[in-house]
Amino acid sequence: MIFLMFLYPIYNNDTTTLAVVIPVCFLFSWLLFRHLTRKIRQRNRNLQKAFPEGWREILQENVRFYRELDIKKKEQFEREVYLFLFEKKITGIDTDVGDLDRLLVASSAVIPIFAFSQWEYDQLDEVLLYSNSFNQNFETAGEDRYISGMVGNGIVNGKMLLSKKDLHFGFIHPQHKKNVGIHEFVHLIDESDGSIDGVPDVLMEHQYAEPWLRLMHQEMNKIKSNRSDINPYGATSEEEFLPVAAEYFFQRPNLFRKKHPELYHMLNKIFRQDPVSIFRKKVGSLFQK
């Protein structure tokens, strides 16, 4: 209607101008459409490309979550990893970045949102990999190097900073309850609703918000009184409890469900994943053959 209102006075006054304006308007509309759909079209092109066999071998050897999936789910995991690596830059800060590093970063991003196809980390532009833990000045030498990862703000807004050594540790030693990559990406998931507050509204159905907060505070109190095996860092704030619990949930799902059944059930609702069942199905299928 607006388009017709724009053309009406031109039509009454100058048919020659109208003959020029109509093609220009259609050209503008076409260019706008191409611009708005550029990312979707690029994603579709990327999904048509074959996943490198060398990458598949790296995932199989180093990422337990991927290794335990059935064939169909592995293909889905590969697609999500592929899209992440095409769309996000990974840069080494005084350290080399190889395929293993890139795939571990991408796996950290994919694991918590695996139930949400083609999830986009819109607030993330680049992942910066440091050789080791770093201090508040982003230095990897000297004292006070206690930071393994962080979601950037201020001068590093849109960046995620990760210690390469600690990133590798979380995947090499899945028996531990820590995975800094998963931890930091859960922060980004939490932030997708506008704030990092430990309540991921984008993932969580409304009726689960109050029960989640209740469970969170109960467990934080247990941690503070040494009555919980959850990493004490999770009790420092609400915003840290969710990623700490998520690390445990994905790293040691059987133990987490045994020790914290209510929390396990709630994280199952939040992430819409049941890692215990996934792993059990894989084991069961081996015996059925």
TrEMBL record:
Gene3D superfamilies: Collagenase (Catalytic Domain) (3.40.390.10), Glucose-regulated metallo-peptidase M90, N-terminal domain (1.10.472.150). Keywords: Membrane, Transmembrane, Transmembrane helix. It comes from the Bacteria. One of its GO terms (molecular function) is aminopeptidase activity. The keyword Transmembrane applies. Pfam families: Peptidase_M90. The chain crosses the membrane at residues 15-33. InterPro entries: MetalloPept_cat_dom_sf, MtfA_fam, MtfA_N. The keyword Ribosomal protein does not apply. GO terms for cellular component: cytosol. This is Peptidase. It comes from Fulvivirga imtechensis AK7. The lineage of its organism: Bacteria, Pseudomonadati, Bacteroidota, Cytophagia, Cytophagales.
